[in-house]
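ingest -> fold -> write
write: protein_1
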Amino acid sequence: MTSTRTRLLALALAGATLALVPGCGGSNSESSGPASITVAGMPTSRHPEELNNFNRNISEFTKANPDVKVVGDEATFDVRTFQALLAGGKLPTVFYVPFTEMQGLIARRQVADITSAIGADSVVSRINPAILKVTKDASDHVYGVPIQAYSMGLFYNRDLFRKAGLDPDKPPTTWEEVRAAAKAIQTATGVQGFASMTKDNTGGWVLTAMSYANGSTIASADGRNATVDNNATRSVLEFYRSLRWEDNTFGSNFLTGYNDTTKAFAGGKIGMFVQGADAYKVVVSNMGMKPDDFGIAPLPQGPQGLGTLGGGTVAIINPRASAAETRAAIKWLEFVNFRKYDSEAEAVADAKAKVADKQPVGDPALPLFDQATTDRYLGWVKDYVNVPRQNYAAYFATAQTLALVPEPPAKAQETYGTLDTVVQAVLTRQDADIDALLKDAQRKVQAIIDAG
């Protein structure tokens, strides 16, 4: 799912018969002259600080690589329009997709094989193997560059916790504690204690994460069989029912997406909800929540909990790009995303620039590299960290130990969309038959998988 998301995000973030946009090149052969690439994800003028950072990256990159021309493009991933964008040939050279899209794109040959463009000394080759695996096929060929990874956690408002007499440094570790905290927040402050996204595939995404935390996946490991109708998912829906119909701590709007819920949380209108850790930037930097009010805890685990859902963003390259353009795109991705991990000077320069642009340094995220590399980077930029990392101690403590469970390996987004309606039904109908809903969802998801 998109996060920073995001989600998204931020979420943060190609077709075999694509017609190319200007500058993408027209074949897989070498072309003469400088390589020209278009790069998706350029921030709009509504976010001037992020746009400044994007343009600065282009300026610095072209200074270091005068043989490459980079043009920004505002295109971003949207599950409702992505396939049309592919079919219409409007993707830039570099585009960003959720982890869930990769295996389908690889199977349909809608994304470039970049294995030969990754050198032995490339930073890409040192990405955590468990994360890089999402971009590979059965032959170990690489089709994308993970630029950001997240794990799902429990977002909570530290200020509301204090007002409710709860210790913000000791967030809930069980779902029973989440329920009790939701009651305490709503009783003391009148603010909705707990929330969940419910539409645009986000309801099913969160339901899946909570199913993992309660003991079951929603698809077999090979992606061939749906396992939606299971006791863990049933227990999550019963949890929702309790908060909605018994405690009345689930609010009154049950058709909300990523932006709706994150905006409400940033505005102090929600006490807790489940989200990807990468959404810190969206909630704090873009939506104005006070950094000291933002809290994130590990996703609470049931007695049979499997861990937490992990996902992220992958940069893909238009398969019609020339070899020179592909190499230029890899250079761009490494320059923008990874140079700070190999050079103290680059790390400090990047941190200084982000602080000047009012962007976070040291925000909670799932490390792409090993702990030693991550710790070295944080040591280099310690004087520029502008995020109260001590407030996220519980999350950081389990970032390397709480098991990461991947998203469904086949038809994940379609599965999430099907589960959206199940979540909506439980929250809007007091007499909703959870067993019947799950049985119906099981049948529909299996049909989606079988359709291939």
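write: protein_2
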Amino acid sequence: MMTRLLTLLALVLTLPLAPRVAMAQAGNYAPVITVNGLGITDYEISQREKFLKLLGTPQSTREDAEKALIEDRLRTWAGKQLGMKMNEEALTRGMSEFASRGNLSTEQFITLLGQNGIDPNTFRDFVAAGVIWREVVRARFAPLINVTSADVDRAMMPESQTGKGVKVLISEAIVPAPAGQEAAALGQARQLSAAKGEGAFAALARKYSAAPTRDRGGRLEWMPIDKLPAQLRGPILALKPGTATGPIQLNGAVAVFMLRAIGDGDAPSAPQDLSYMTLNLGATGSAQAAKLAAQAAADARVCNQLYTVAKGLPESAITLHEKVAQSAVPTDEALVLAQLDPGETQILRRGGSDVLVMLCSREVADTKDQPAPDRKTVRSSLEDQALGAYATGYLADLEAEAVIVRK
């Protein structure tokens, strides 16, 4: 069931939703926060916190719920400025599609929410903000995007080469974006994106990146392109050596990648299933996080040994992700896993927390071979990636300019 919920969470901001269901319980409806005049109640914050915990998200505290709701109000406010409204038929159709991808019907998913004390409107409002936001971003930025035939050619290289794979030499910078510091993080990421040449990028990576590679200027070793998260391959292959991607939103961070070189590698592998574990070590810089990281480094050589490291922590602190399709792994985790062999670990910084990631196994997926994407599909993917970069910047700008009042 947890795997289903995580899958639903990954889809929730890209799909429409069902009609609004009447609220079944009372709560405190007095606004405790207003965002450009749009209120957020204590009841909504409590409900969003429950919802995030049900889905098993690492960021599921009350503060995380407040941050998410503030961002949703900004998305809704932006839609209102453009006169956008929801289409009820699309909502109904989208909810059915959403639930079916988690092997649940619409009614089953709503029942699951009720069993956990969650008002269906919490789910509706969560998705509604994402749906409106998608339309806002397309309306504002789609005319600015120009994906060329050369861009498509580069993005299709792994699929178009016969008998050869592609390997890339890249540098990374992972800029932490804890609550309240998203705009500053985005500004630093934009500096990295504008860097000209490896030296300039390396200097900024040493200054701003929180990844373990910061001390060497973000430089990674040669890597087969198919070990990288699928959503990063297009933007990286579209680069010329010495240039960097735009800011890419991760969970609690913003990433930028520079292509240093590209070359032929081994034959492309089949789709992969990854089994791995994540352990929330606690607040970044805390004594607890340092102690647990040292204990894991000394005592954990295989995934099961992490349970000993996690002894005494809340059950939710450690999670086994078993045989997850590579394409379904969150981008920040997938980027870390691409650099690991089974039994190896790396610390991932998410907002204000350190999360230890250990790769348990990497297996060929038990699926039929899929045809290479056609040019239309690749072009659409590149356009969506560009829109995502615009969306990240625009949301940060909206928050910087918003009138947010806590009562």
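write: annotation protein_2
The first strand starts at residue 31 and ends at 35.
The two ends are 38 Å apart (CA to CA).
pipeline exit 0
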